[in-house]
Design a protein that fits this description.
This protein is an alpha+beta fold. The chain has one domain (46-211). The chain has helices at residues 7-64, 88-93, 193-200, and strands spanning 128-131, 142-146, 149-150, 159-160, 169-170, 179-183, 188-191, 210-211. A hairpin with a 4-residue loop joins strand 6 and strand 7.
Length: 214
């Protein structure tokens, strides 16, 4: 007599197969998702470095046309009058002829939206600070960098001092405790907190003033 599987037994096997499949998918997701997240974060940081390289190049092109000074150090066609106070965006507006797009001023890992144009640019569209005392004659000076930089000093009207004796570091925002910094020589460095502190000892400036886009 030919035996046949009962519908209940077939359903039980099908349910077990489904559970096994779901378990396999969950295991694969647990393995792959962290790798995908790390790859995305790495790609975003590389794009951020490229943004800062374009910003640094724009500053240097501007300086060639204005007596080898950056906008922050030029009193007539620059932004020297905007150095005091929360005017980080003003220094980037001065580069409107040198930068291709305002999208360059927003890091892809940041939550801040880019401005639609330079006329509407404001601090809430910026991912980067500006080094107010950046000077081509001091190549290790901070020119621009990730806005999530901090130390034990309080900003005064959005201007933060970064003297070497006040340990600086990065918050968890943007690049998860890391940061990118563009220097006056046009280079862009990826700094951990310890490397950032070492770098600030060699800038040749006792204050390292930066304008935060708060």
């Amino acid at each position: 007599m030919k035996r046949t599987s009962s519908p209940s037994r077939s359903s039980a096997f099908a349910f077990i197969d489904l559970l096994v499949l779901l378990a396999i998918i969950a295991i694969l997701a647990a393995i792959l998702l962290p790798s995908l997240a790390r790859a995305k974060a790495k790609a975003q940081r590389i794009q951020c470095v490229n943004n800062l390289k374009q910003v640094g190049l724009a500053f240097r092109i501007w300086s060639v046309d204005h007596g080898d000074k950056y906008p922050m150090g030029h009193s007539t066609r620059g932004t020297m009058e905007w150095v005091d106070g929360g005017n980080a965006f003003r220094h980037f507006q001065a580069l409107s002829n040198e930068l291709a797009s305002t999208k360059i001023l927003a890091c892809p890992a940041d939550t801040r939206p880019p401005a639609s144009g330079f006329a509407g640019l404001h601090n809430h569209n910026l991912s980067y600070f500006v080094g107010l005392d950046a000077d081509e004659t001091r190549p290790q000076m901070l020119l621009a960098g990730d806005r999530n930089i901090t130390n034990n000093l309080a900003p005064v009207r959005s201007v933060l001092m970064l003297p070497p004796e006040s340990p600086a570091g990065w918050t968890a925002a943007i690049h998860i405790g890391q940061g990118n910094v563009g220097l006056s020589d046009g280079s862009v460095q990826q700094f951990s907190t310890p490397r950032l502190r070492d770098m600030l000892k060699n800038t040749g400036d006792p204050t390292n003033r930066i304008a935060l886009p708060d």
